[in-house]
Amino acid sequence: MCVCAWISLSRAVFVFPFFISFRKRTLSGAYFTAGSYSMNNSSVATAEKKETALYRMRHSLSHLLAAAVLEIRPDAKLAFGLPVENGFYYDFDFGDTPIGEADLTDIENRMNALIKKRIPFVRSEMPLDEALAHLEKGGEVYKMEYARELEEKGFAENGNISFYTMGDFIDMCEGPHLEHTGEVPKKSFKLDRISGSYWRGDETRPMLTRIYGLAFESGAELKEYLEMRKRAMERDHRKLGDELDLFIQDPEVGVGLPLWMPNGTIIRDELEKWARETEFLGGYQRVSTPSVTRKELYIRSGHVPYYEDSMYPSMPVDEHDDYYLRPMCCPHHHKIYASRLRSYRELPVRLCEYGDVFRYEKHGSLSGLLRVRAMCMNDAHIYCTPEQVEEEFRAVIDMYLMYYGHLRMGNFRVRLSLHDKSSDKFVDNYEEWERTEAIVRNVLDNLGVTYEEESGEAAFYGPKVDIQVKNLMGREETVSTCQLDFVMPERFDLTYVDAQGEKQRPFILHRAPLSTHERMISFLIELYGGAFPTWMAPEQVRLVPVNDEVMPYAQELEEKLRNAFVRAEIDTSSESFNKKIRNAITRKIPNIWILGKQEQESGSVTWRRYAVKEQQSVSFDRALEALETLRDKRMMDNFADVDLPL
RNA sequence: GCCGGUGUAGCUCAGAUGGUAGAGCAGCUGACUUGUAAUCAGCAGGUCGGGGGUUCGAUUCCCUUCGCCGGCUCCA
Predict the structure, then answer these.
(1) pLDDT in tens, A408-429
(2) Strand B: which nucleotides have any atom within 7 A of a protein Cβ?
(3) Would you say the C-alpha torsion A435, A436, A439, A441 has a positive or negative sign?
(4) What is the pLDDT of residue A157?
(5) Using CA of residue A94, residue A99, residue A103, residue A104, what is the dihedral sign?
(6) Does strand B come within 7 Å of the CB of A608?
(7) Is the CB of A598 under 7 A from strand B?
(8) Nucleotide at minimal C1' distance from the A249 CA
(9) What is the largest CA-CA distance in chain A?
(10) Which tens digit of pLDDT belongs to each residue from A440-485?
(11) Is nucleic acid strand B under 7 Å from A479's C-beta?
């Protein structure tokens, strides 16, 4: 089976030629993005950016914000204020009297007044006890906590804590800052929104009020960013999902439980079909397993207790049995593997399933299709020998890159997600963590993939490689994941018999390259702006007759298309011709075939694509053939650089 | 779950400092039969998210609850 898989994978390369060129780009370490900006304003700027002028300006603006806030709310306590990707923020504790968005204009005006005064930023240092005394005088409990921590961890410079003074405002801060407030360019910043934020990001600590501001090097750039953000809203998958009848959500069904409309279901089906073919070529075997399962299984797997918080509460079925909606398919697949004795000769065993899974996400984190409570996952588990792990992992990553390349999802980064010793979210087995993390790191290094390591991001049962994608709003989510599991083989007593007749433990890879339908399609909708390639499009061809005279011709073609399994519709409305064209375009249908007297007489169609302006007249037979090629080769004809295969 | 915002016809939005609401698009009907992004006319659509309170009277004020949006936490 192993040899067979090799052949299959090289065939996969042949079938999807884009794979090779994409791989090269990735191997060179390029991190290419679709847009010039990301809209994320939550991630903290990295260390190497600290020296830039923009960083200093944003950092100084956060001080200006704090100073202005203290003018109207002298009792507010300061927490952290930092530069972020598109601006800055500052966290405050306003006690029992919250601040609202109506206050932002006032604060912004006060900041501008401070800017006009060209107040210098002056750095000073104090020993810890002096610093604490100073902070205590101002009631700055958060800063005091942090000052003590800096001292304990030895981060205080020469045992001193640094402060920056700007006029009457003094803040414990490591800098760097502008020389003076006047260096902030005119109209280059804007207070954006207010949100909550836990102190130190810990939900057991106080909820603070965070004020976000946008800031750029010039007023023009700020304006450009705001316009870009407005344009991006037009591509929001929730808006397009509604307009294109892809999916709905209904409070009576339940939040986070999307209902896929006929159009959206076609997109799911097409992805699923592609996955089936790819997995067949990759030597996978399909299985089907149930969505509800006894608690016992999840105790064995460790989902209870490690994952219980993210699961729907259990259902008591009778006095002895509790059932759960499954949050993952893995335990079921493990049971299939364990159902009989396995020989090393049949490894790797690759079991795949597009499986429905259910996770009880916190209400506030739900968002369109991006974060839901019921989802369908492109799941699979690969059971292999230790010797096969690297090769299998490599094949999985290759499959990811093929999918991403083909779908033109370029805006991603690879994250090596490691455990965190200080957290109880992970299975306690230091040696195995070290060992498996080294294996995964090695695979990535050998592939030449550029990646970033992050601890505390692993699955509870092992390290993983995640593909992180940012959506339009700059929200980054894990789309695909590949996990190396050293825990479940033990828990499920999974074995295989080796060449010596000895029982051995296999490794398990968990992988989901196409993510869940929900998350993957939410990204695709936004990436394509709702304009899908012919192979995925709910309606592949819109037949537009110029007048009723050609309706019989249109009906003849529609029937031929239907018999060729093409999703085509005739526009039979009594609208004007212009309106029919417009309707087809606003529905983002990839192909419009115009039928008039000329076309009828010559047995042809005039082909107008969504992606390109130029149109051409071709015989129906040729057009159908080209359409089938578009479909069967899954060509990305929603991009203008893809020509019709005529 | 927490913080801030928001909720008027299927969609996008008007509106009145408390006297039960309008437009465009979509829908339906009719006329028009059109060659590349909106033909014309008519009709129909809402107990102004739900519940409670204040009031002679609430969509408008207050409370509460639900949904949605942006964050935080969490995560595919």
Answers:
(1) 998 888 999 999 888 888 888 8
(2) 1-5, 11, 30-39, 66-76
(3) negative
(4) 67
(5) positive
(6) yes
(7) yes
(8) B67
(9) 94
(10) 999 899 888 889 999 888 988 899 999 998 877 777 889 999 999 9
(11) yes
Chain A 448..467 CB hits on strand B (< 7 A): 459, 466
pLDDT at A265: 96
- Round to a whole number and report the distance in Å from the CA of A89 to the C1' of B14: 35
Q: Which of residues 294-333 of A touch strand B (CB under 7 A)?
A: 309-310
The label of the residue with tokens 């999974």 reads A494
- Cβ atoms within 10 Å, residue A280: 14
Tell which residue, A568, A576, A557, A565, has the closest CA to residue A592: A568
Instruction: Give the Cα separation of A563 and A584 in Å (integer).
Output: 22
Q: How far apart are CA A298 and CA A334, in angstroms?
A: 12
Q: What is the value of ipTM here, to two decimals?
A: 0.93
The amino acid occupying position A499 is A
What confidence score (pLDDT) does residue A9 get?
26
Using CA atoms, how far residue A584 sits from A44, A233, A545, A562, in Å, is 44, 22, 12, 19
Taking the CB of residue A185, how many other CB atoms lie within 10 A of it? 17
With a threshold of 0.95, does the pTM exceed it?
no
The confidence score (pLDDT) of residue A346 equals 96
Whether the CB-CB separation of A333 and A317 falls below 8 Å is answered with no
pLDDT of residue A232: 85
Cβ of A616 < 7 Å from strand B?
no
Are A162 and A175 in contact by the 8 Å Cβ rule? The answer is yes
First to last CA, chain A: 40
Q: Is the CB of A612 under 7 A from strand B?
A: no
Taking residue A619's Cβ as centre, other Cβ atoms within 10 Å add up to: 13
| Strand B neighbours among A 142-201, CB < 7 A | 193-198, 201
- How far from A82 is each of A26, A59, A213, CA to CA, in Å? 32, 6, 10
pLDDT < 70: residue spans in chain A: 1-50, 156-157
A183 CB-contact burial (10 Å; exposed 0-12 / middle 13-18 / buried 19+): middle
Which amino acid would we find at residue A369? L
How confident is the model at residue A1, as a pLDDT? 26
Per-residue flag: A586 CB under 7 A of strand B? yes
A332 with A293: CB under 8 angstroms? yes
pLDDT of residue A280: 97
Per the CB < 8 A criterion, the answer to whether A454 and A22 are in contact is no
- Other beta carbons within 10 angstroms of residue A123's beta carbon come to 13
Task: Give the distance, in angstroms, between residue A426 CA and nucleotide B61 C1'.
Answer: 53
Residue A515, SS3? coil
- Kindly report the backbone phi and psi dihedral angles of residue A384, in degrees, each rounded to the nearest multiple of 5, phi listed first: -145, 170
- Whether the CA torsion A573, A576, A579, A581 is positive or negative: it is positive
Cβ atoms of A455 and A420 closer than 8 Å: yes
What contacts A641, CB < 8 A, 6 or more positions away? none
A101 Cβ contacts chain B strand, under 7 Å: yes
Tokens linked to A209: 């009020």
Angle between helices A2-15 and A18-27 (to 10 degrees): 100
